[in-house]
Specification:
With about 180 residues, the chain is mostly helical. The chain has two domains: about 15-55, no CATH class; about 60-160, AhpD-like (Up-down Bundle). Helix content is about 65%, strand content about 0%. It contains nine helices and no strands. The chain has helices spanning about 15-25, 30-35, 40-55, 60-75, 80-90, 95-105, 110-125, 130-140, 145-170. It is globular, with a radius of gyration of 16 Å.
């Protein structure tokens, strides 16, 4: 059970309503993570600002952003976010099997994306540290240093959601991600 109230757009604190409405519209409904974040106007405002800014300014296309989110959610063992980002990745054109591959860290037939996921996995697992070999391999695969920094921004944004779900025990209201064999 979630440790804090889950708000709707009708009963959210006034200072949370605009951000909650934007994020609910973005995904098509008010999901539990947003309803719970809305309990703190500061937190939902932070998330809304970061997500909106990245969505409008990241050099990474939407599918790549979702692959990064899904990878980090797997590293952080966040079941809620793995469910959410699996759905988002599918909306970006990934198949169910590809979402599983992303969570494993390698997408068959896509060496460039796999290199970025390796970078992201190391970044998230090692608390911001990335070996020079991994950095160079990601650049050699065709990613720019600006794209690596944007991937870092996506990791930070995803850690926010993952850790929030761990902290408050967000109740699952989305279809669960497929099991990884």
């Amino acid at each position: 059970m979630t440790r804090i109230p889950i708000h709707s757009t009708d009963d959210a604190p006034d200072a949370s309503k605009a951000a909650l409405e934007r994020q609910s519209a973005r995904v098509g409904k008010t999901i539990n993570i947003f309803g719970a974040m809305a309990h703190s106007p500061t937190l939902i405002g932070l998330y809304d600002t970061v997500e909106t800014f990245l969505g409008e300014n990241s050099t990474l296309e939407g599918a790549v952003r979702e692959a990064v989110h899904l990878t980090v959610a797997n590293v952080n063992a966040c079941d809620y976010c793995q469910a959410a980002y699996t759905g988002s990745a599918k909306k970006q054109g990934f198949s169910t099997e590809q979402t599983i591959e992303i969570r494993r860290g390698a997408v068959e037939g896509d060496d460039k994306l796999t290199a970025l996921l390796t970078f992201v996995r190391e970044l998230a697992s090692d608390k911001g540290y990335v070996d020079d070999t991994t950095w160079s391999a990601t650049l050699d695969a065709g990613w720019s240093d600006v794209e690596l920094l944007d991937a870092y921004a996506e990791v930070v944004r995803t850690v926010l959601t993952n850790w929030f779900n761990h902290l408050v025990h967000t109740e699952q209201d989305l279809p669960r991600a497929s099991a990884i064999d």
